[in-house]
User: Fold these one by one.
Assistant:
Number 1:
Amino acid sequence: MKLYYYPGACSLAPHIVAREAGIPLTLEKVDLASRTTETGASFATINPKGYVPALGLKDGPVLTEASAIIQYLADSQPGTDLAPAHGTMERYRLLEWLGFISTEIHKGFGPLWNPATPDAMKAATKERLAARFSYLDEKLASQPFLTGSKFTIADAYLFTVVNWTNFHGIDLSPFPSLQAFQARVASRPSVQQALEAEGLKQAA
Ligand SMILES: N[C@@H](CCC(=O)N[C@@H](CS)C(=O)NCC(=O)O)C(=O)O
């Protein structure tokens, strides 16, 4: 399988999950500005939506959307416990977290990446993120990972997007349990290996 990625972007989540699951991946970096991959391929022909992550499957098709890709990877290695079985309440709790991370945190950062965003809008965006971080902080005060005692794909995704606070000067110290979570996940060998493979130093 081939993961189309950009260093430190949301594609880091499937990268971490693949390493946790012991799934070998070929990595292909995408230049998001020119929409060209590092081998010179037009990324538009791979993912017409134009964004990472995209997962090229063994037999040709391409799977997109971070939440779908990380579930696909986890479900392909059931023994790893990275996602509860389909149809269980635990699975719906996991989906609940993936929805929250995707829409409230991942896309919650959106305006901060746009240089044209006015300062007032950036401040409002950070305030809204802080409210979400506060909720996460409360949850993580009593358990090491989002769904309890086990690391799951939701934790890989949350770590990836909260790590962007480092790029936007957002101080996590008002959220000590979330900050501890970031350090806990960063210390996992899979995460260290993924960061290194993407040419990133540990930012969390
Ligand atoms: N809905 C997509 C969003 C993916 C996304 O936001 N990708 C960003 C990097 S984190 C990207 O490639 N942005 C470039 C662009 O949209 O042009 C998903 O959940 O996977």
Number 2:
Amino acid sequence: MRSVSPSRWREAQAHELDFWRNWRDLAPYRDVDLDAYWRGEIPKFGLTPEFFAGRTVLDVGCGPVGLIHFLPQASRRIRFDPLLHEYQNKLPSPGFSVAGAGEQLPLVSNLSDITICFNALDHMRDPAAALSEIARVLRPGGTLLLMIHTFPAWTMPLLAIDRLHPHHWTHSGFLDRVARTFRVVRSHRERRVFPMSLAERLKPSGWKYTAAGFVLATTYVVAENT
Ligand SMILES: C[S@@+](CC[C@H](N)C(=O)[O-])C[C@H]1O[C@@H](n2cnc3c(N)ncnc32)[C@H](O)[C@@H]1O
């Protein structure tokens, strides 16, 4: 898992900001009910909402509308993202808001009971450094919840065209990397399907979601900090 240059990361982040400025106009996201969406993601980790009750939860790479905003049962919530100050339409703070990069978390060690890193590690400059930092800030025995998009090995040479993501993994490559820092408790992969009508798929703006639907998977990992 190599790191990318600061300029490559800044390029990806510019695309990221652009995405979040326009996401409600994009066909797959136009009608997303965020509350229902996040309620549907928690069982994919084999968990129920009660798992978060009374816990300190940190969301690294939370984005403007991440899972951390939908966990009122947690006792303490910390949202963390380098673009936090740039996001115009972000949800109100769920507790603590910290802007910065996951490669160097400005947080004390053993702080969180649960750390979420959802669809964010492949956006980072140095994912290996971020995993080490996440391990430092998560208490021993604490739980890391990871979600990442994964691809078949044959697509890897083609994915350099994806400027939004500096990194791409296969499902097994990702699990191997996580297992170097954490104990993987559970993982599963499912096809990524974009909810769009056929008419939307046939538009020039829809082709990439249709193509991605053939190769893209979503990998969910529950890991324990040892
Ligand atoms: C696709 S968004 C996911 C947001 C949110 N987790 C969600 O699922 O809605 C990826 C997020 O990762 C953040 N990110 C990029 N580089 C990062 C880094 N080095 N450390 C922490 N977060 C980073 C981006 O700013 C962006 O908000």
